Each structure stands twice: as structure tokens, then as C-alpha cells.
Amino acid sequence: MRTWRAQTTVPAPPGEVLEVLTHPDALARWSPVGFEIEELNSTRLRSGTRARVAGCLAGRRVKFDVDVMQADPERLLLHARGPVGMDVEYTIAPAPHGSAVDAAITVRGQRGVAKAMIARALHLLLAVGGLEVALARLVREVEHRNRRPRERRRQRPTPGDRPAAATDGRRGCRRSPSRRSS
Fold this sequence. Notes:
This protein has five helices and seven strands. It has helices spanning 14-22, 24-30, 113-127, 130-146, 149-154, and strands at 2-10, 35-40, 50-57, 60-72, 75-81, 85-95, 98-108.
């Protein structure tokens, strides 16, 4: 089990930060791991919401069941269960120029070779700055939402602005072998 942490200041009040943290389309653009939301029992992530997400890690298609434990202007807390377990926490506090955001992701490995490989891939992604990149994308997403419509039309997207959800999530993923019945 290991925890990664990162901090940033977002140029918006906590409520607006929470809006971007919990909106499904925005979430796919700033998340450290590209994924698709397969099921969501609400229009956005709220306390008590459940979701199923799928993406690609270590060349394999993986799925996670996500439980939103808390979603309010001070904190977003999620638990994800899949080939690895994850506890994800974003704390949000008012700051002089917006909101201070502290992010923490704890990854819990599981037994099995494939699960250990997926856990190592996730550890590597986070160790090389995946969480910091996600927070930078979060800041960009909030800034993009706060621009006036005229400014948005003049702004050309840069390669880093491509949403993670724009891919089908399968490129480079191997399908996992069928499970055999015992």
C-alpha cells in the first residue's frame, strides 16, 4: 500500500472546483488515468453515488467500481474496487487566489500476477508525476470553464488539451483471457 500526494491552487472558489471534480465529462479530461464511465447512477458524482469506470492500465482493459463517500465543497472522497483498490481524496479550502487543493491517492495491491502488474503500472504513473499532471489539467479545466464565450472561440486547443475520454480506451489494451469455470 502506498500513498501519493500533490497540491495546487485553483483560481476559483471551492464550489466551482467541486463542480469540475464531480462532472463526468470534466472528470474524464483531467483524471490521471484515461477512462470511460460505463455506469453512473446520477448526473454527477455526489455523496452516495456509485459508478463503474473502465480504462487501460499496463496494456490491459480494467474496470473499477467507484463509491463516492463524500462530495462537498470541502472534500471529495472516493473508494475504487477493481484489480487494485484505491482511496482517492481531494480536500478543497479557500485560498487568497481561489482554492487550495490537496490530492491523495492510496493504491492497495491485490494478489495475483496480473493484478500486481496493474498495481505496478499505476504506481509508476503516479511516481512520475501523474497526480501533479492531473491537478494541472484540473486548473486548466476550471480556467476554461471561467472564460467568456468569445475568448473560448479564439482559443485553439493544444495537444495536451485532448480529453482522455477521446480515445476508445482499448488502443494498446489486451483483452483479458476468459475466466474458466471450476
